[in-house]
Write a sequence for this structure.
């Protein structure tokens, strides 16, 4: 699941709460398809939801995220801009819209624009580690390593005393900066630390976005959740060590 999804869809997920014996709405089907990577099916479901309730922020933001995954960035932008002035756009949905804008720009490699959206959101949520991580990604993508390092310094490593610590942002920010500075082993160590401290499920969610923003050559980051080849150590050799 891409970073920003939980923030963007939290109100929608609450709206989908229903008794187990009730069928899912088209929005609910679209969410499930989106989360499992079936983006074309998700788009079909969300188009149905849009026809039933046009202008609904939940539907429109989810549709923009689906279009982003399908790399239809112009379509995603049009959908998100269409929400401006919508009386149903509460402050919570406005934050979700801003995050979706930032994520769309980040995936489109429009790093400076992405930074502006994330920074406006960070002004409202100043300690959100995932927003900070996305700014780190955007600044690394823009080759502004000094600013990326400044933002990364605001993140904290895993705290075993905090049972609510489920943000692996610190380690992936460290990995992104290490990659940009040519330190492949440090990047690999950071990702492995995220796996060790947070478990495979959380680390994989973060790794998905990491690979989407910094895709390794010759691999499909949407299918392969393992670290890119650059991060893997060299295979062992049978040659004797040089004296």
């Amino acid at each position: 699941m891409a970073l920003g999804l939980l923030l963007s869809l939290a109100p929608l997920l609450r709206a989908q709460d229903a008794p187990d014996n009730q069928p899912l709405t088209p929005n609910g089907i679209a969410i499930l398809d989106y989360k499992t990577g079936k983006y074309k099916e998700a788009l079909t479901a969300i188009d149905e939801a849009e026809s039933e309730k046009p202008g609904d922020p939940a539907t429109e933001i989810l549709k923009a995220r689906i279009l982003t995954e399908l790399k239809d960035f112009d379509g995603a932008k049009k959908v998100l801009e269409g929400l401006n002035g919508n009386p149903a756009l509460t402050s919570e949905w406005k934050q979700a819209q801003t995050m979706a804008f930032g994520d769309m720009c980040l995936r489109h490699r429009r790093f400076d624009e992405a930074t502006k959206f994330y920074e406006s959101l960070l002004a409202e949520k100043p300690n959100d580690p995932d927003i900070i991580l996305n700014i780190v990604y955007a600044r690394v993508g823009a080759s502004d390593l000094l600013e990326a390092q400044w933002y990364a310094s605001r993140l904290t490593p895993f705290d075993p005393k905090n049972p609510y610590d489920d943000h692996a942002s610190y380690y992936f920010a460290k990995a992104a900066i290490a990659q940009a500075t040519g330190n492949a082993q440090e990047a690999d160590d950071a990702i492995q630390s995220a796996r060790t401290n947070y478990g495979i499920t959380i680390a994989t969610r973060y790794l998905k976005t990491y690979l989407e923003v910094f895709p390794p050559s010759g691999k499909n980051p949407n299918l392969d959740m393992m670290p890119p080849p650059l991060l893997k150590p060299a295979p062992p050799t049978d040659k004797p060590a040089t004296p």
Remarks:
- Residues 158 and 197 are 7 Å apart (CA to CA).
